Amino acid sequence: MNTLFDKIWDAHTVKTLDGGSCVLYIDRQYIHEVTSPQAFAGLRQRGIGVFRPEQVTASPDHNIPTQNQHLPIAEPQSAEQVATLERNCKENGITIFPIDSERNGIIHVIGPQTGLTQPGMTIVCGDSHTSTHGALGCVAFGIGTSEVEMALASQCILQSKPKSMRINVEGELGKGICSKDIILYIISKLGTGGGTGHFVEFAGSAIRSLSMEARMTICNMSIEMGARGGMIAPDEVTFEYLKGREFAPKGEEWDKAVAYWRTLCSDEDAVFDKEVTFDATDIEPMITYGTNPGMGIAVSGAIPSGEELDAASKASFDKSLAYMGFKAGEKMAGKKVDYVFVGSCTNGRIEDLRAFAHFVKGRKKADGVTAWIVPGSKEVERLAIEEGLRDILTEAGFELRQPGCSACLAMNEDKIPAGKYCVATSNRNFEGRQGPDSRTLLAGPLVAAAAAITGVVTDPRELM
């Protein structure tokens, strides 16, 4: 009667303490340049090293530029953070994929891509979107800096076990609907607190029909509804994706691993603390209109009035619309777009770039739009070039940049100017997330492509 989450969590519980907290063993820890320096400084102050460096992997991603990566990083603070990460990894024997490495990229892209992320693992990183890795059937979640230090020192962290939740999406997806539309739809229905206190398993025929990379998009944004993390039971799609990857098991070890991975599913009689079901045919291409990921509607829809909200929520709703320069009742279709950003750990994989490039093929970028197409890793960049996607983009007036987190969170040079509207395939639309006073409209690659071509918010199905 166990859920998939229970099976993995319980197998990694070293000890349950009085009060209910668990000492949880961690199979793999990912680190980057932003949340790890303080953790290493803490270890030095305590006079201890990294307990199991072979189970830690690093890649700079947040602060790195997406142009001229062969040159030294120009921004002093970013340069110092990246240099500090490299120094800490060297001192502690940790594998790092530096900027000039063919393996470099956003940590949540390269983990699955290299085969380091595998079903049944517990995975942590000082980054909230660690939930991405749950798409391969892992218990993966973000941790704070003190916990980064704890995991480095002991390969364990102290955690309270979350409740379990299952979200089923049943039925067949319509034309032009991608995984980003699914997760934006779910969050719009459940709200940004709908998963609070829970670890979510995504299930149902529509979820099973998705590719591995599409599943990563779903799990990536599970935390935007307040969940501790998201996961999807591994299946043939998972095994096919992992087979032959650099750090995946080989030979007899592969056969043994797959045999174990096949056991990683919720039992038929498993009971979840919370369960909801959605009909895939109700999902349309989505876009956000406000300043949290729950403020999403169909691209063809109108901004709601918010009249059903309580006084405090209504005040927040009104403040959000004022920041965005929108009014209740207005249609989103036709609204002017200044920037388009395709990338991030949400939608910076090769399938996302393929979808965008194939949509814009034979068309031209709108004159008033600045577009940043940013691969999530060096491997994605290489494939985009080899497959001719860069040529398609160039012909249509776009530029393929170099890998990095880019405009997702504006910790680098890629910032959206104040007051400008950006259709972004990233994961958050908070005030100033993409630059001071910038305005973010979250969407999938096809909605982004339609906006890039027309210069306004457009339903991609009208151009298909």
Task: Please describe the topology of this protein.
Elements (H helix, E strand, L loop, with lengths): L3 H8 L1 E4 L5 E4 L2 E4 L5 H10 L9 E3 L17 H17 L2 E2 L10 H8 L7 E4 L13 E4 L2 H10 L1 E4 L3 E8 L8 H12 L7 E6 L1 H4 L3 H9 L8 E3 L4 H7 L8 H11 L12 E6 L6 E3 L7 E3 L12 H14 L14 E4 L1 H4 L2 H11 L9 E4 L4 H9 L2 H7 L25 E4 L14 E4 L2 H10 L10
Account of the protein in words:
The chain is of the alpha/beta class and 464 residues long. It has 16 helices and 18 strands. A five-stranded parallel β-sheet has the order 5-4-3-6-7. A four-stranded parallel β-sheet has the order 11-10-9-12. It has a four-stranded parallel β-sheet with strand order 16-15-17-18, covered by helices on one side.
Summarize the structure.
The chain has 16 helices and 18 strands. It has helices spanning about 5-10, 35-45, 75-90, 105-115, 145-155, 180-190, 205-210, 210-220, 235-240, 250-260, 310-325, 345, 350-360, 380-385, 390-395, 445-455, and strands spanning about 15, 20-25, 30, 55-60, 95, 120-125, 140, 155-160, 165-170, 200-205, 230, 275-280, 285-290, 295-300, 340, 370-375, 420-425, 440.
